[in-house]
Specification:
2 domains, 182 residues, 8 helices, globular, mainly alpha
């Protein structure tokens, strides 16, 4: 059974990163090392914890963790162009990593991009495809409205996480219905 920690630990890395960006002074390259290091460490620690507990990873938050690790990697090997690119792209960069994670997990994991153990309302391939389409829509929207905080950051993430939640609810509803009938 999932505990409250199991339900929220994966999102801690993103929360810490966003809070740090709001309270920290992010004017120089060195200022980015701390939030990327914190977020990468928390994200990797959460991933290990979730895997150790035998719980399926939230693929969207796994993509966010990969984004943090890539940013940290770029800073550590002094790829300033990568940090500059992430700064220019903003939310598009993070959504791009989520989309890339979706392509890999959708194709390589038996649980797909959605991360379900058995097919529900849609097959695992269909739900992965729908979530990938939602990810692509979110990424393109963020790109198009890159300089608009509401439409370029908030709306794409809310849309993507809401689509994941909807697909999971459809999966659980069908599962409950089939258990009640059987």
């Amino acid at each position: 059974m999932k505990t409250i920690l199991d339900r929220c630990i994966e999102s801690l890395a993103l929360m810490v990163f966003l809070i740090y960006l709001q309270v920290g002074d992010m004017t120089t390259r060195a200022d980015w090392l701390t939030p990327y290091l914190l977020a990468s460490s928390i994200g990797l620690g959460a991933t290990v914890y979730i895997l150790h507990r035998g719980i399926l990873l939230n693929r969207l938050l796994l993509g966010v963790t990969v984004y943090f690790c890539s940013g940290l990697f770029g800073l550590l090997i002094e790829w300033d162009w990568l940090n500059d690119l992430y700064g220019t792209l903003g939310a598009v960069a993070m959504l791009g990593w989520i989309l890339l994670t979706g392509v890999f997990t959708g194709g390589l994991s038996p649980y797909g991009f959605l991360g379900v153990r058995s097919p529900g309302y849609f097959s695992i391939v269909q739900s992965s495809g729908l979530l990938l389409i939602a990810g692509a829509i979110a990424t393109v929207t963020a790109w198009y409205f890159m300089h608009n905080k509401l439409l370029g950051e908030w709306v794409p993430f809310i849309f993507l996480f809401s689509m994941r939640s909807l697909l999971l609810q459809l999966d659980r509803k069908l599962l409950r219905a089939s258990l009640a009938a059987g």
